Amino acid sequence: MPSLSKTGKWRRRLRWALWVALGFAILVVIGVGITWYALERIAAEGKKKLAAAIDETDALDPRWRWEQIQEDLPAISGAKNSMRIISQVSDSLEGWNPSFLSSANGDHVVDELDESPPNRRLEEGRCSLIQDVLKEHEPSLALAASLKDFPDGQTSIQLSPFFIETSLKHAQDYLSVISLLELDIERLLQQGRPEEAALRIHAILHAGAGLREDPFLMSQLVRMSGRSKSVMRAERLLGMAELQDDALKILMEHFRAELNEKLLLTAIRGERAGWHLQMENLESGKVRLIDFFALREDNKRAELDALQRVGAVVYQARLYEDHSYMLQQYNRTLEISQLPDPEQTKAWNEWINEFRATTSDAFAKKRLILSKLMFPAVQKCGEALLRNKARLSCALAAIAAERFRLKNKRWPKDFRELCPNYLKEIPISAADGKSLKLIHRNDGIVIYAFDVGGFDDDDDDISKHSLDEDDPKGLGVRLWNPDHRRMPPLPKKKEQPKDDDDRET
Questions:
Q1: pLDDT by residue (tens digit) across 268-277?
Q2: Taking the complete model, does pTM exceed 0.90, yes or no?
Q3: Where are the domains of the chain?
């Protein structure tokens, strides 16, 4: 009997354990069901928003998808494609980057070209170094110089399943070409060959035009860098020599054509199309969200813990809302980029404030995570483009002033004297919509614009600057009287004696 009693107790305990397990299983199933239902509702609401966002985008830009953008690209034969030349130059350099060229004291030579006063020669040692390096890379240089005859170009983009991992090697190649041409411009100026140096500026601008259809913000930022370099090299050219009017007129035509380019429009349309594909890949499961979250800047994958993995699974339902919000924001930024230049700064500020407030609030609730973390800094790119266009306007006005001086043997009193023979109208800065400034100095003139940040209009201390100081705010071009051009190199700075405590024993 005692054994039967014990057996009954164990059976009762077993039945109780089974009922508990069953109850727990039922609760788990119910919990999973409720969670699944909630996530499905979230996904359904997100899909409605996404459908509305796609309809909005179709109405604003009927051919906005990636494959349509690619189909609409102009046809450029391989023989006339500047990007083919750029790729050949990069391959011929075999990984050597002229921007890393260092002098004996360790200074980067290309950086020194920007820091050296535009009207002063380089010291002999640096000139010899540039000549020796260019002699070693004569075939590459010949290819790079030929870009003056290639005004058009484009690259076939192979999109990565992870959009942000798409290779932009061609844009990096362009930077190497620019640096090589900058060194050659300096060599030609030191040798007294300014007309050939001017052709190298044409080559830089044509090389940049090869990125004209490149649908990435990074590519267009790289192109802006090339345009800024061209302005600096033009200032250097006019600080070291005098060119004939015909050469100056052609240079103006190049800069004027650059001002009419729609860099930001191309970039935003491309980024929107690329991210649309990326989000579709995530929604369909072609790309796993967990793999996307594991991306790192060094192109390696981070290890996610169990909680992060569960979070990636749960967030899948939020992708459609994130997707729709991204499309709406790309549409908004595209509209801002097409406003008149003077209206853009205010619009960018209003948009970024609204974007940050919305995404920060949503992020705290585990929503719009990808929008907050991955949406590109379009506002900064927009402001960078306004500065870039202001620099180009300064360069145009400066070259016009130089042409006026060649004919009239004096500098123009103001911009009105340049219209309409050299400029169609008073030059306006894209940065603030106001007229450029023209300051007369004992050694020449300065033409400049105020920055996007909004400097005080009374800040005209540039007229008091010494001969060798830089242009104001980084948005100006200086021109020198002929007798102040091609000045000797600056004397070397004397090394400061070390304190006793710093001297070696």
A1: 999 999 999 9
A2: no
A3: 12-70+267-376, 77-151+168-261+383-484
